[in-house]
Amino acid sequence: MPQRKTHSANTKAKAAIDAIREDKTTNELAGIYGVHPNQIGLWKKKILEAAPMIFSRKGNQELKKMKQEQKSLYQRIGELTMEVGFLKKKL
Questions:
Q1: For the stretch 30-41, what's the b/e string if a residue is b when 16 or more beta carbons lie within 10 angstroms of its beta carbon?
Q2: Which residues constitute the domain of residue 31?
Q3: pTM score over 0.90
Q4: What is the model's pLDDT at position 60?
């Protein structure tokens, strides 16, 4: 069974942007990037759906909130790891 190809985010973005430009057909882009034409269409659709979020303030606020939450979770993980180490020494 052939193994699936994985494409980097950079490659996906380039393919989607090329599809948005419409300089080449989807089939031509699929040949260039070595993927099925439907995949090019999916990447194009995904980038067009995400575009408004990039420029919205709400999206930026959500991103900041997620980063802050991630920071506090990592801090809590560190605290719990230290507690586990301490308890292992006591036993």
A1: beebebeeebbe
A2: 7-55
A3: no
A4: 73
